[in-house]
Every structure is written in C-alpha cells, then in structure tokens.
Amino acid sequence: MKLPDILDPIADDLRRVDTTIRERLRSEVAMINEIGAHIVSAGGKRLRPALVLLSARALGCTSEEPVLHAATIEFIHTATLLHDDVVDESGLRRGMKTANAVWGNAGAVLAGDFVYSRSFQMMVDSGRMEVMRVMADTTNAIAEGEVLQLLNCGDPDVDETRYLRVIELKTARLFEGGCRLGAIAADAPAARQDALARYGHHLGIAFQIVDDLLDYTADPAVSGKNLGADLAEGKPTLPLIQAMRAGDAGQSELIRQAIRDGRIDRLDEVLKAVESTGAIPYTRALAERHSRDAAQALSEIPDSPYRNALLELARFNLTRAA
C-alpha cells in the first residue's frame, strides 16, 4: 500500500494543514517568505502531522484543533532540518537545493529560528498548557539529540546503545510528541495518551533505523540521497556498528577509518563489508521489532479507519524505498 492510500482517511485534514503552514510561514521579511516558499515546494511525507491527525481521530476527536497541532509539529521538524543541513553542510534534500545552499548558512539558521519561534506562537494559540509542556520537553530533547549526534560523528567507538540514544532523542521524541498531542486534542485519559505516545516512540525509532539502512541499500534515483551520505559525514549508524562488531579485523579497521575520516573513496569496500557481515538483516530486524512494539501499543485503541492507518504506517515504514 502506498503512503497516500494509507493517509486517505485524513486527506482533507492534511490539506488544511498545508493551508495553515502556508499562512503561518508568512512574514514581513522577504527572505523568510522566499525560504518559506522553498520549504513548502520541497514537499515531504508530512508523516509527523499525519500522526497527530490520526491519533486524534482514532480517539474520536472531530474538532479542528488537531490541524493546528499538526502544523506546529511540521514547523518544528522543518526548523530542525534547516539547522541540520547547515551542521551537515548538505547541499541537497529531497532532490532540491537546501536553503543553506541557496541563501547561505546565516540565512538558513535564522529562518530556522523563525520557524521554531512561530511554532511556539501556534502552541500558545491552542490555549493548552499541556501542549506547551509536551512540546517544550520535545524540542529540548531534540536539541540534546542533535548535540549527541555531533559528538558521535567521526567516532568509530560509538556502540549500539549510544546510537539508539541519539535516535530516541532526535527522532522518536517528535513522533511521540505528535501522537500525544493528537490524544490531548481528543481529551483522552492518561492511559490512552500514553498508549499513543508509545506507538509514536517505537515508530520513530523504527523510522530512523530504516532511514539509516537506506543509506546503504537504497536506489539514489528513488531516495534522492547518495549511497554513503551518512558515512561521508562520519556518522556511525547501526549498519556500520554491526559490521564492525561482526566482521573480521580487516573489515572492522576499514570501517573505523572511513568513520574517522568521513571517507567514501572506499565506499564499495564498505558496502561489501556491511553486506557480508549480515549487518543489513540485523538492522532490519531491529526496525521490525520496534514496528511490532508500535503496533502492540495500539491494542487497546478502538478499531477504526484511523487506527488501521496507524497500523499500516508501521508496516509501510519497513518496505519504503525513500
């Protein structure tokens, strides 16, 4: 099943989210409007807003409140991408030039700050202190994850525990926060909020693991990302960590040097090591485990097209090519 088919139950909501995003990106400053238009045109899966909407609708919410929360989540995600691209010195995202490549690092960072601060204005508009608390904690966790990832870059001694901690903070917390916001909008009891948050947490971990796996298995024409892009940035992701752990001394040293130096001139050898050591099925198995945990978290949520869509998202993530 394709992503648009999975998200069909909230198609109208997602259109309202896109409208809200365009309206809230407007500024009196011309450069911000230009970067905002660039961001919108780049598209994306809108997965995080979808989690807000599906969680709210699965718990019976019929109001417009989840649309505002969904746009807020996408703003936070967008701000992190603007800053990430500067830190990673990225020139392309989703097949388009990054904002920093077009407007420079200063413009991209400051635009990211604008988007971040606008997201908090939108949280205030919700009138719910609980929303502010959840998202303040979430954005703080994301910032910690970004710093931890920066410290891990170029360090071949990063183990699986350190790798997963970055994922939990940098990716899973935003998925988790989005699902919890949907439950809050539905005025759900604490147990239901926690169940949706657990779903988002495990889906977020599985999502990032698959992303990291695609760096060594995807078709660049489909993914819009060159093979070995993470390696070029010295990121010790799980396929490399497992290949070093399971490989022989020569393979381990090859990958250690590649991580330390951010070298991709021996990418073909690294790819062979990743494949021959069983690192790919090992990584995929961990993603599958977290996907199962995500599905299990929904066991007490009433059956509906929205709950079914959440379950399908967990399955879709394991088979996506980008």
Automatic annotation (TrEMBL):
Chain ranges passing through the membrane: none
Cofactor(s) required, per the database record: Mg(2+)
EC number(s) given by UniProt: 2.5.1.90
Domain of life: Bacteria
Keyword presence, Calcium: no
Xref: CDD domains: Trans_IPPS_HT
Species whose genome carries this gene: Sinimarinibacterium flocculans
GO biological process assignments: isoprenoid biosynthetic process
Function: Supplies octaprenyl diphosphate, the precursor for the side chain of the isoprenoid quinones ubiquinone and menaquinone.
Classification via InterPro entries: Isoprenoid_synthase_dom_sf, Polyprenyl_synt, Polyprenyl_synt_CS
Catalytic reaction annotation: 5 isopentenyl diphosphate + (2E,6E)-farnesyl diphosphate = all-trans-octaprenyl diphosphate + 5 diphosphate
Keyword entries, A-Z: Magnesium, Metal-binding, Transferase
Molecular-function GO term, any one: all-trans-octaprenyl-diphosphate synthase activity
Record's protein name: Octaprenyl diphosphate synthase
Family: Belongs to the FPP/GGPP synthase family.
